[in-house]
Amino acid sequence: MDRADGRMDLTMKVEGMTCGGCAAAVTKAIRRLDPEAEVSVDLERGQVAVVTGAQALDIAQALGRAGYDAEAMTG
Ligand SMILES: [Cu+2]
Fold it and tell me: Where does the HMA domain start and stop, copy by copy (predicted)?
């Protein structure tokens, strides 16, 4: 979804997050791409909501490098 500020609301499906340490690692990996990204991790659902100007594919690749299989969800 496009926002007025040009950033996107993304929801990523992320495999392998089990604890707060994972949430922190995922957040850090995303912020390395976009320091201003708003990141909220839902461990139970295995989902991460991101408001960012970065591309979903780049985020998925960064999370993959951090050890978490990730893909953008639609809808
Ligand atoms: Cu963990």
Answer: 8-71
